[in-house]
Amino acid sequence: MTNKKNKISLIAIAGGSASGKTTVADKIGEACAGKDVVFIQMDNYYKDLSHLSPEERKKTNFDHPNAFDYQLLIHNLKQLLAGNEIEEPIYDFKVNSRSNKIRTIQPCDVIIFDGIFALENQEIRNAAAIKIYVDTDTDIRLMRRITRDVKFRNRTLDSILNQYTSTVKPMHDAFVEPTKRFADIIIPFDYHNPVAIDVIATKIKSLIK
């Protein structure tokens, strides 16, 4: 994967589940006003499980790197970095599978890519102009995850806590937390960090300029 330096910049934002990655991405996008920015969420690149029954899908470990379709993800990032439009899948968390909808994304100045494993793949890391890790306290992440999954994903509290203890936390410790060492910038604890956002936005503007 080749990043066209000074033309298209890829910003990779990693961190634990419900750490505030997407909020950080949004704030960086706001700070880059006047630039053509697109957002790519890694969650949309979970593997298609439509061939499995609903019960079988629930048994999938969604917090392991193998749950993601890296082939399609890297292909789409390559196309955007080359200045081509892509068709991004849209994942439906209520049924644990890809929906029939897609999102057409046009070429841009800045690609802001976020996900728990945004820094896990070396090819993506090598293409990223800036690599960020959002480092949020475990208790805060768990509370946010409960709120999100109950409100938007039709989950019960018991199912959320069972998944958290059986896969989310063990996979975070094994695969997500170690990617912190690849980050250029670590944003601590929460997204209310205007200085870090300003530094990142200034760097992005200088890369594009």
Q: Would you write up a description of this structure?
A:
40% of the residues lie in helices and 21% in strands. With 209 residues, it is α/β, with parallel strands linked by helices. Helix 1 crosses helix 7. The longest helix has 20 residues, at 157-176. Mean pLDDT is 88; it is low at 2-6.
List keywords for this structure.
alpha/beta; 7 helices; globular; single chain; 7 strands; two-stranded antiparallel ribbon; 40% helix; 209 residues; five-stranded parallel β-sheet; disordered N terminus
Cα-to-Cα separation, first versus last residue: 22 Å
Percent in strands: 15-25%
Are there runs of 5+ residues with pLDDT below 50, and where? 2-6
Number of helices: 7
Class inferred from helices and paired strands = alpha/beta
Mean residue pLDDT: 88
Strand and helix order: EHEHHEEEHEHHEH
Number of strands: 7
Described by strand count, sense and barrel closure, the largest sheet is: 5 strands, parallel
Q: Please estimate the helix content.
A: 40-55%
User: Any idea what the shape is?
Assistant: globular
Strand order of the largest sheet: 2-5-1-6-7
CA gyration radius, whole angstroms: 17 Å
